[in-house]
Amino acid sequence: MRVPEAEPAVQSWRDRLDPSARAGVPAHVTVLFPFLDESRIDRETCAAIGEVIGRHRSFEARFERCGRFPGILYLTPEPDASFRTLTEAVRDRWPQTPPFGGRFDDIVPHLTVAQGQDDAVLEEAEAGLRGRLPVTARVSSVDLLVHDGSRWRQRASFALG
Description:
Blueprint: H1 7-17, H2 19-22, H3 43-54, E1 59-69, E2 72-78, H4 81-93, E3 111-115, H5 119-130, E4 135-139, E5 141-147, E6 152-159
Antiparallel strand pairs: 1-2, 1-4, 2-3, 5-6
């Protein structure tokens, strides 16, 4: 889910420290990755995605603190229940595509700011973000991004109900 309200706070950090930003991915909270290969996304699949997403209401989230995974700095959305519910709904519809390939037991909604960085760089970015938070966002749609081998692009957007 795209979070344009966060761009002023995170864009300069993401441009430097998040390879996905340089590949065309905007500030976002991932619903499900990896998803179906683009060759499997046809009109019927898009209709099914729209149906699943459309069952959920738009919502607000506030990003006021950072979190970390090893080598990764992210913003934590609060509340995160609506993000989790969307991920679960899409995963349940396409069980062959578990979040992050099934590598993690728990769904942790997050907006990545930096990845593949050492702790000193993450600490610098976190300190730089403190004065730019909180960010409040209205989430009203889910975008489907596809990768062409070097860049990500939006294939479709699906409105929340």
